[in-house]
Amino acid sequence: MSALPRTAVQELLGSRYPIIQTAMGWVAKPELVAAACNAGAFGFLACAVMRPEEVGPAIDRVRELTDRPFGVNFHMFQPGAEQIVETIIAKRVAAVSFGRGPDARMVKRFREAGIRCVPTVGAVKHAKKMAQLGVDMLVVQGGEGGGHTGSVASTVLLPQVLDAVQIPVVAAGGFADGRGLAAALAFGAHGIAMGTRFLMTKESPVPQATKERYVAATTDDIFVTDRLDGLPQRMIRNRFTARLEKTGRLSMLMTALSSALTLKRISGARASELLRSALRMARGGDASFSQALLAASAPVLIRRAIEEGRPDEGVMATGQIAGRLTDLPTCEELVSRIVREAEERLEALCRARGEAGG
C-alpha cells in the first residue's frame, strides 16, 4: 500500500499521482503533456502562445498520445482568447489554468461545462480573489519559480495561502523531487506543480543545445531582473541578459516593438489586436502600457532560446531549482522517482514517530 495519501489532485483532475506539469510556453507541447500524463502526473498544454486555430488540433494531438486526462492553459490577454475559450469548452478538456484574466462569468462557464479551474497565483490577495471567483483549486507559486515571479518564498507563501482559502492548494516554486512532495503534503498542500523539472526531461521539445545550458547552470547563474518588462523575472544568465542589463528603457521599448512585429507574424494577429492585448494587460494589473507591451512580446524572446535552440540570443526562463538539477530523465523515470522518494520520506517519518512513541 502506498504511503502517499490520495489528494484533490487525483480526485478532481484524475491523475495517478499528486503531481502537476505546468504549462510553459513553447515547452508544454502535446508530446511533453502526454508523456507527463502517461507517467502519472497531470499535464497542462501551453496554449497561451498558440494561434486560436492551433488550439483544437493540439488538444486532439494530446488525445492521440494519451488516454489520460489533461488540461489547457491560456490567458484572456492574448489575441483570439474568446475563440480559444470556445474551443476549450467544445473539446471538454479536464481542466483549465490561467492568470488573473477571467472573471466570475468565465469561471462559471468552465465549471458548468465540467472543466476544473486551476489558476496559478503568486500572492495571498490573488489567491483570495480566485477563491471568491469560484475556482476549484489553486497552484501557489513561491518566489523560487521561473519566469515572472514574486518575492515571497514557497515556505512562507504556501502556509499563508493555506490559511487564507478553503479550497485545495498545490505548491509550486522550488519543487523537483520526492522530498519536496513530502514536504508540500506535510504543509497541507494537495501536491506539487513543476515546470523547470519537466522542461529538463527527454520528452521536452527544448533543443539539446538549450537543455545542456539548463543542466550546466548553477544557482549562481540564475538571477531575477525587471529589465525585460518592468516586472521581476527569473532566468539564466547569458549573452542576451548581459546586454539586457545594460540597455536603456527606450532601447528596450524598441526591442518590444520589434518582438511584437515578430509575434504578429507568428500568431497571425493584427497589430490592433496586439495593442488591445497590451492595453487589457495594463488595465488588468499594475503594469504601465509600455511594460505591458514588453510583457506581451516577451514570448518571442523566450522562443529564440526555448524553441529555436539559440540559448545566447533569447531568454531562458527558469526556476531556481535548475541550479541543482543535473540530469534529463524521461517523464516516467522522473515521476516514478519522485513518488518513490516521497513514499520513503513519509514512511521514515512514520517509523520515527512509532519509535519515539514506543
Characteristic key phrases:
single chain, 358 residues, alpha/beta, three-stranded antiparallel β-sheet, 15 helices, globular
Helix content: 40-55%
The strand line-up of the biggest sheet is 5-4-3-2-1-10-9-7-6
Task: State the separation between the terminal residues, measured CA to CA.
Answer: 23 Å
Oligomer: single chain
Net shape? globular
Strands, total number: 12
Tell me, rounded to a whole number, the average pLDDT: 88
- Secondary-structure element sequence? HEHEHEHEHEEHEEHEHEHHEEHHHHH
Strand content: 5-15%
Major beta sheet, specifics?
Answer: 9 strands, parallel
Low-confidence stretches: none
Query: Rg from C-alpha positions?
Result: 20 Å
Structural class: alpha/beta
Number of helices: 15
What does this structure look like?
The chain has helices at residues 8-13, 30-38, 52-65, 81-91, 104-112, 124-133, 154-164, 178-187, 196-199, 208-216, 239-246, 249-267, 271-284, 289-306, 331-357; strands at 19-21, 42-46, 71-73, 95-97, 116-117, 120-121, 138-141, 147-148, 169-172, 192-194, 222-225, 233-236. The strands form two sheets. A nine-stranded parallel β-sheet has the order 5-4-3-2-1-10-9-7-6. Strands 8-12-11 form a three-stranded antiparallel β-sheet, with no helix packed on it. The chain has 358 residues and is of the alpha/beta class. Helix 8 links the parallel strand 9 and strand 10. The model has no long low-confidence stretch (mean pLDDT 88). The chain starts with 7 loop residues before the first helix and ends with a helix.
Gist of the model:
With 358 residues, this protein is of the alpha/beta class.
